[in-house]
Amino acid sequence: MPPIIDVQHLIKSYAGGGFALDDVSVEIESGEILALLGPNGAGKTTLISIICGLTRITEGTVSVGGFDVVKDYRKTRALIGLVPQELMLEPFETVFETVSLSRGLFGCKPNKSYIESVLSQLSLLDKKDAQMKELSGGMKRRVLIAKALSHEPKILFLDEPTAGVDVELRRDMWNVVTELKQRGVTIVLTTHYIEEAEEIADRVAVINGGKILLIEEKDKLMKRLGTKQLRIELQAPITTLPDSLSDVDVQRADDGMSLIYHYDVKAERTGITSLLSKLASEGIVLRDLQTYQSSLEDIFVGLVTEENK
Amino acid sequence: MNLYAVRAIYSFEMARTFRTMLQSIASPVISTALYFVVFGSAIGSRMTMIDGVPYGVFIVPGLIMLTVMMQSVANASFGIYFPKFLGTIYEPLSAPISPWEIVIGYVGAATTKSIMIGLIILAVSFLFVPVTIAHPVLMLCFLTLTAISFSLLGFILGIWARSFEQLNLVPMLILTPLVFLGGSFYSIDMLPPVWQTVTLFNPAVYLISGFRWAFFDTADVSIALSLLAIGVFSAICFAVISWMFATGYRLKN
Questions:
Q1: Domain range holding A177?
Q2: How far apart are the C-alpha atoms of A81 and A78, rounded to whole Å?
Q3: pLDDT at position A33, please?
Q4: How confident is the model at residue A226 (pLDDT cuts 50, 70, 90)?
Q5: Do A105 and B92 make contact, defined as CB atoms within 8 angstroms?
């Protein structure tokens, strides 16, 4: 199946010099959730803006649903719903009017019951006649999502959707995202909360300085880049490491009460068995064992730091 | 054509107008009534007829044009500037809608509001002076064309402006003098010969003169010239808007 979003050799440069995007190529599969991770100014919002038609392309091509975003903009934009980062809403309009406007803008016939169902899904139905200025920040964020969903899009962009929202809304929002995914909607989200990407995404793209550093399935990425750590707690402290462990990547910790061993999950042999038998032959008694896998955040920080060097 | 989108923008803008109906209408009606009292009754009673028309009646078309031109620019510029200011412009810009459909929605709503106000002022003027309209259909045509062309100008202004100050600057510094010196309150025959020539460079003269012709069958400049002036003015506005959209001027990076 061809990708639903196909970005090829995309360059965005500014008149004053400098690149916002530098030869970016990304293929986004239909129905997947892609998390776009990157520090501020990495080019995440620029990439989304170009796909949505808000920013002009300097070079390269972008197609959505097989259509070019410049030549066939009516077809491509009708497929997309965008939830922007900022809370941009008309203060004096009501929730229902503003969501209806969005539906109309995207060329859909007015449909009161559909809009009410979207509002209900986002716990906004009782606020449908309230003006924007009466709503809390979290409620406004919900309205932006309702606007993006008002025309039943096939692709949803969520640009930093959980910045500054409470736990309840985050939970509601992920429920909506999960439901949309079940309906086959493709979701692209940018977030600073890496644990969210870790929890919800199928694939992760890391972008920095206008370049895609990697794009990979989240699980594979974790396996590929993740090192694991084994923490061995001891019954009695040891002052020095026995000579038999000199060729093993193990360190003393907690004043000799524990040992930390790093190993590679993708390696054929992890070396755990041999380490444990060496400890047993040295007469070291173990109290507990814990393993810890690097989070996406560790991987992300590692990649970005390496790139910046 | 994305008709649902045009309708959505138009209805959304008109809803704003109806929500602020009192301010939208009370203010032009009160100021017009003041003009009638001051110019029509107080000063007009001491003036002779102009082109065979009593002064109080003579100023009716000029007053309507004055308000319609100012309102068209104000409504259309605010209509597009406000979403730009709030950031909500992202939505029409990312919607499957062509630039001209955006223009039809916003300019259509601004034009409708100005025409409504123009007609209300006309109705109010009947309360003060005995107005007659020689060519009612052409009067409506002139009113509509003027409202459209000045709304287009307002649209350009709204896209150009980066602040509310700039939004007010052009109407205050350029538009008000042009409209006041365009013969709203006098016939250009009453000016010294040099100023009569200078005045012919003011586009408002042609619009006001044409509109006045629709009322009294007499005009400062020929009706064909008036229509040509509206045509040229609108064409310039269309060209500027096309350029703005083609280059993404102050709308897209």
A1: 5-222
A2: 8
A3: 95
A4: low
A5: yes
What's the structural domain count of chain A? 2
Residue A305: what residue type?
T
- For chains A and B, what is the number of CB pairs under 8 angstroms? 81
Each residue's pLDDT tens digit, B170-217: 888 988 888 888 888 888 888 888 888 888 888 899 999 999 999 999
Subunit contact A88:B19, Cβ cutoff 8 A = no
Instruction: Please indicate whether, in this complex, the C-beta atoms of B248 and A75 are within 8 angstroms of each other.
Output: no
> Which alpha helices (H) appear in chain B, and where do they start and end?
3-19, 21-35, 55-86, 90-94, 99-128, 136-160, 164-170, 176-180, 193-199, 203-216, 223-247
Asked if residue A117 is part of any domain, the answer here is yes
Task: Out of A14, A103, A107, name the one closest to residue B2 (CB).
Answer: A107
For residue A76, give Cα distances in angstroms to A10, A102, A147, A182: 17, 16, 17, 22
Residue B253 lies inside a defined structural domain of this protein: no
Nearest to A295 by CA among A209, A213, A166, A204: A204
**Comparison of pLDDT for B41 and B134, the residue scoring more:** B134
Q: What is the DSSP letter of B52?
A: T
Domain span holding position B118: 3-247
Please answer yes or no on whether A107 and B5 come within 8 Å at the CB atom: yes
pLDDT band at B136; cut points 50, 70, 90? very high
| Burial of residue B126, with CB atoms counted within 10 A of its CB: 0-12 exposed, 13-18 middle, 19 or more buried | exposed
Same domain, A74 and A164: yes
Task: Determine the residue type at B136.
Answer: P
What SS3 state is found at B85? helix
Look up the CATH number of the domain holding residue A272.
3.30.70
Task: Write out the residues of chain A at the interface with chain B, using a CB-CB cutoff of 8 A.
Answer: 14, 49, 52-56, 73-78, 80, 82, 84, 86, 88-93, 97, 100-110, 147
